[in-house]
Amino acid sequence: MSLELRDIESHVGFQRYLLRWFKTPFGKQALTLERALLDEHLNTLFGYYLVQMGRVSHASLLATSRIKNHILVDETLTRSEAITERIVLANLMAQPFAASSLDLILLPHTLESTIDPYRFIRYVDELIRADGHLVITGFNPMSCLVLRQRLGRDKSRWRAAHIIKMERLVDWLRLLGYEIIVKEYSSSRCFESKITDKIRPFYRYVHRLGRPFSKLGLSLAQSYIVVAKKQQWVPLQPRKAHQFTEWVSGANPAVAQSRHSSSPSNSKSK
After folding, report:
1. Which of 25, 73, 150, 234 has the most crowded CB, counting CB atoms within 10 A?
2. pLDDT tens per residue, range 183-211
3. Of 53, 14, 13, 56, which is closest to residue 149 (Cα–Cα)?
4. Which of 114, 46, 41, 40 is nearest to 75 (CA)?
5. Measured at the alpha carbon of residue 9, what is the angle toward residues 18 and 178, in degrees to the nearest 5?
6. Is 260 or 64 the better-scoring residue by pLDDT?
7. CA-CA distances (angstroms) from residue 126 to 63, 103, 120, 122, 230?
8. Does the CA dihedral 184-40-180-1 come out positive or negative?
9. CA distances from 172 to 115, 147, 163 (A)
């Protein structure tokens, strides 16, 4: 894939911002709910190489993964930082991986930080092997969290980010031939309050009420996770015309005769 300079430049500024914002009280709550989704679904995926593209948390997001080889690709890492994963310093649109060589790729808010999200998905698709998985987390643009942040002190950061609806992302992946394994929203939090035992049942009740709306793409949850499996396309071998009747039970192949050939009745009369 040939890349121009403008294509190689990526908007990693939003990921750098999230790296700081997730340390704030409200950000910690949001990250806790999002990590619950990651811990649940990364534990069910297998392979040899797992690559996380971009970093939004100082703590590892891959702790529950059963894949042995963890690789973190980032443009701003320094050797002094304590990172448990193997580090690759590279631009997100110019990574040193061979085509069809990775089993699982994690994009934690990476699409929200790139110039062209759909183009980036197509680029990532070339790196995943057949039957490999793509895991994406993102903010729900309809959530009170995003609406609040877009009106707050850091509104320029949030308005510049490419925050995508989950259903739109699912359409992109299906267009590229992916099977959607998981599409799930997190709980919804609008205020900087701790979840105590008294209000925990209330949050669970609100979450249950929002499930029917989530299936219609009308969820107000703050973030989501999508797990997609890359399909291995195997072209079907054409079968001969006389074999098609074998697919229908009880069907007898019809015999077509030429107009110039003699019919059975004419041959008997002669």
Report:
1. 73
2. 998 876 654 455 445 545 545 555 555 55
3. 14
4. 114
5. 75
6. 64
7. 26, 12, 10, 7, 10
8. positive
9. 16, 24, 14
Fold of 5-230: Rossmann fold (3.40.50)
Strands 102-108 and 49-53: parallel
What is the residue type of 246?
Answer: E
In this prediction the pTM is 0.75
- Residue listed under structure tokens 């072209």: 235
Return the structure tokens found at 141. Answer: 């643009």
Burial class of residue 56 (count of CB atoms within 10 Å of its CB; 0-12, 13-18, 19+):
buried
